[in-house]
């Protein structure tokens, strides 16, 4: 898979959710806090867990995209030195 393919796959994995990484992490921490302190009603637990799973995938996709971009930048810099 090429770097462009990885970038496209990472972008597609985020879907329509334009939540930033920091915001997603903050929301994940809030969900975890509610679950750990048992603030989440059992009826809402499945909804909270579904949202947490979406946020995790979003964060993973953003990390993968950043890795691809960093690799591309490093490669361009290395190619310029040769």
Short description:
Helix 1 (about 5-15) packs antiparallel against helix 3. The protein is mostly helical.
**Largest beta-sheet characterization:** none
The structural domain count equals 1
Question: Low-confidence segments, ≥5 residues, pLDDT <50?
Answer: 1-16
Number of helices: 3
Radius of gyration: 17 Å
Secondary-structure element series: HHH
**Residue fraction in strands:** under 5%
Distance between the termini: 25 Å
Coarse morphology: rod-shaped
Tell me the number of strands: 0
Helicity level: over 70%
Structural class of the secondary structure composition? Answer: mainly alpha
Global mean pLDDT: 82
Relevant terms:
82 residues; mainly alpha; 3 helices; 0% strand; rod-shaped
Q: What's the structural blueprint in terms of helices and strands?
A:
Layout: H1 3-14, H2 21-36, H3 42-81
Helix pairs in contact: 1-3, 2-3
What would your notes on this structure say?
With 82 residues, the chain is mainly alpha-helical. The chain has one domain (3-81). 83% of the residues lie in helices and 0% in strands.
